[in-house]
Amino acid sequence: MAKLSHTDATGRATMVDVSNKEVTARYARATGSIRMKPETLEAIRRNSVAKGDVLSVARIAGIMAAKKTAELIPLCHTVPLSDVRVELSLDTNLPGVRCEAIARTNAQTGVEMEAISAVAVSLVTVYDMAKAIDRDMTICDICLQEKVGGKSGSWTRSVEA
Q: Which end of the chain has the least Cβ crowding within 10 Å, N or C?
């Protein structure tokens, strides 16, 4: 079993020291979804939700979350993001909304948590904006799909969630 990187020799939680790591180009992509009633999805598609444009607000919320990740996740480093992309798409097969976030940086540590945070907050924002018409919505399958860069190199999920 691999040693946990966020614990010291005594088992206490600690921030990873990245001062000796190389600055490299880093990339991460995360995905997730929110399932809802078909009529909720239709209201989002028609842009008739009382709180406004659900997808635009959720996209901006996701970008903001990526930028604030180090404030939300206790042992994350502050990372100078060079790019954050959040895409939301309607999926009648769920039915619901799918979210994909991509984060990029040139830094000593990766941006996996930033991409995951962007997806999570985007989907929570969809819930918040549409909850008046559908409290049964379920946020699902938030996960890292791939990461590139750093000492461990590239990684891709073997099965797309």
A: N
